[in-house]
Write a structure and sequence with these properties.
- The chain is an alpha/beta fold.
- The protein folds into 2 domains: 160 residues, Rossmann fold (3-Layer(aba) Sandwich), CATH 3.40.50; 121 residues, Hypothetical Protein, Haloacid Dehalogenase-like Hydrolase, Chain: A, domain 2, CATH 3.30.1240.10.
- It contains 12 helices and 14 strands.
- The protein is globular and about 55 Å long.
Length: 295
């Protein structure tokens, strides 16, 4: 069991957010109560800050000295001090090489460039993606897990045949879309050409994200802990997918949501009895923080 809990770390999609993509009133109330007791709250997401800011405001993170970790750990927002710390991006020339290798492996690329999501596709693939987008919208309305955020991203994407002309500066992460076989071929080629350079984070069976190896939720949360005089062993963390795995395996208490991906569940230290739609984060906090802080 972990030492006294100093910080709660929550992923958003599939974790703190319910199936309606909101934080329940009950979860907001309880997380504010924990902060009033001196336990920090950090939101750690693959999303970018503009997509996370409203949740940070709901939880009053600025008032209580909380943090927001974005881009799978690329940046840390110290809400109280209005400070920003960033890790390494992927340089433009390496991004372009990754795109070439992805094309050779028949993978579409999905990259945020200057705050706008760009999806690479040829004419045939473009029709297919639009069909998938329609399907995702249907699944979104049916509240199928881990679909609605992907649908949201596709609706806001710009479709381009080639992304390389748009790559003028470092990129936080590259997402590829394609079969697991083609993903594995791409990973192998990246390993051969850039050993130990990237972090690899499965999103779902058909998509994968890569970042610079310095970028991870675990590294970001560890940095926050060290800056505040405690360790990962005094952190309770929650997540549901591949980009959460290193953090959940390293935290004093790392809990994978019941609705987590198959891969995340197979690697979990602790699996929640509850889903994201059942206030799972709060129900587990009520159990583990009470137990831990009684010691």
């Amino acid at each position: 069991m972990a030492n006294n809990i100093k910080m709660i770390v929550c992923d958003l999609d599939g974790t703190l957010l319910n199936n309606h993509k909101v934080v329940s009133d009950h979860s907001i109330q309880k997380l504010i109560e924990y902060q009033k007791k001196g336990i920090r709250v950090t939101l750690a997401s693959g999303r970018y800050y503009k997509e996370v800011e409203r949740f940070a405001k709901q939880l009053r993170l600025e008032e209580f000295g909380g943090y927001v970790v974005c881009g799978n750990g690329y940046e840390i927002h110290d809400m109280k001090n209005h400070a920003l710390f960033t890790f390494d991006t992927i340089p433009p020339e390496i991004v372009k090489d990754c795109i070439d290798l992805a094309n050779e492996c028949h993978l579409m690329q999905y990259i945020s460039i200057d705050g706008i999501y760009h999806l690479s596709t040829n004419t045939v693939e473009k029709a297919g993606v639009k069909t998938i987008s329609h399907l995702l919208n249907v699944l979104d309305k049916a509240q199928v897990k881990q679909i609605s955020y992907a649908s949201h991203l596709l609706r806001e994407s710009v479709f381009e045949k080639d992304l390389k002309p748009f790559i003028q500066k470092g990129i936080v992460k590259i997402c590829v879309i394609g079969t697991p076989k083609n993903q594995n071929q791409w990973i192998l080629r990246l390993h051969q050409k850039y050993p130990h350079y990237f972090g690899y984070y499965p999103v779902n069976p058909m998509s994968l994200e890569i970042t610079h190896s310095s970028v991870s939720k675990k590294h970001a949360v560890e940095t926050i802990a060290q800056n505040n005089g405690f360790t990962l062993q005094e952190v309770i963390a929650f997540g549901d997918s591949g980009n959460d795995e290193p953090l959940l395996l390293s935290a004093g208490i790392g809990i994978t949501m019941k609705n987590g991906t198959k891969r995340a569940l197979s690697k979990a230290k602790i699996i929640s009895e509850f889903t994201n739609h059942e206030d799972g984060v709060i129900r587990e906090c009520e159990k583990y923080i009470q137990e831990s802080n009684r010691r």
